[in-house]
Sequence to fold (497 residues):
Amino acid sequence: MTSVAWYLRRAVPWTTLLGCSAGALVVAVLLERWPSSVLVLLPTLLACCAAAAAFSFDETALPVVAVTPRGAAWRRVARLGAAAVPFVVFACVVAVRPGDLPLARGPWLLLGAGAIGLTTGLAALASRRHVSRPGSSLSGPVVLAVLGPVVVTAFLGWESIYPVGEFGAGVRNLWLGISGLAVVTCLLALWPRLRHWPT
Amino acid sequence: MTDLALPSSSTSLRTMAGIEARRLARHPAFIIGNVLGFGVLVLMAVLDDAPAFGDVLSTPVVAAFFIGLPTLIATARLTRSTEATAEALGTAPGTEADRTKALALACLVPFAAGLLWLGLLLVVTVTESVHPNEWWFGTMPDWQVWSILIALVPVACLGGGVLGVLTGRWMRFPGAPAVMVVAVVVVTMVGQLPVAYESASELRLWVPWAMWHSGSDSANGTADLLAGNPFFYLLYLLCLCAAAALVAMWHDRSARTRRLRFAIVGVTVVGLACLALSMTTGSSENQRSEPIPFQVDK
Fold:
């Protein structure tokens, strides 16, 4: 694992990734102060974490490193470790429950895993298609995609996909589907390297 | 001998603005945002089985979110894409300030999209009808309704575009448009929700997209019209747009003339005056509507 840590320390744009994660923590502080704004602030927190994950596959010198002996698949698998950082931040916030919100921890972790995992998978797929910096292109649309349902569900009278209390069956199935999609995109991006986990 | 007339600066600016407008109109974020913005409004009209179209003055958030914010991302990326060419080859047309002016003029495209959306909203309110107790023409002065609608739809869309140009000019780090989108959402929510329903509701008006309608209370079917003067708020938003465009031009060192400096100071002073007037004139308290029966338990 030493080589993976060495690689991640130098290759991942940590300033951007940790900056977005820090933004999520700032939103968590705002949530602690104004829990009544939960319907917008909680999805915003998720959007920050998902945007952070989008940067985990940014590789400035992609054409150069693509021909190194370890190869692209090794790099992409190793970068999954970086994508786990924003998920850990999200999981910590959900565990702490800022503002004493009655968050259902399990379903919210599933929700975070789905959104952050799908973003990671899309970034990995873009990296596989030789896009050197997918984060810049992906982060903006991801933020809008995460926040958009807040507006849509409110005006169309549909059930919120970010329930503060218990999740209904429909919402739970939606997030299970998104999580499944996240797994599929990650597998597509990383295959066949998953058979040989980096050492 | 044939004379070779160089194009005048206004002609070249018009040409550049036309090119940028076409690039913006073809940008995927702008197109998808418009499809969603118009689509949600159509769905609201089609799926709603209520006897009348409700909460009309709170629907502009759909346009501001789905047209304004994607436009922010699109213009920020367009701004950066031109500069990448200039930095690499030094062949981008005109000065940086000229390109900024052209991009700011191209933001008339989202403004026009916002006007179209507003037109569609008016068509929906005519076809679906509006309850007599709704905050709308008839229950409040016409100039207030028009000021709110213009401020929160086309001017908000214009503002998203200009803010994107400002972001592209001044924020060089990766993901800057996403950070700006999150910042706009957080500032808009945290800046107004804690005070919007209190006695000093007009203090919310400094935010770039202020609510004027509370949405109906499902307990009794009433809705609040929030305090303040919407006409001066509209002028304040226009000053914010102008200030954002001027500060984006200020990024070009060669354009930092005395005239530009005065323009920025002037727009800032006028904007602050409009903000003060929007807070101190107009209704000083939130007003509650008469109950709208179909909004109860909705």
Chain A has a mean pLDDT of 88.
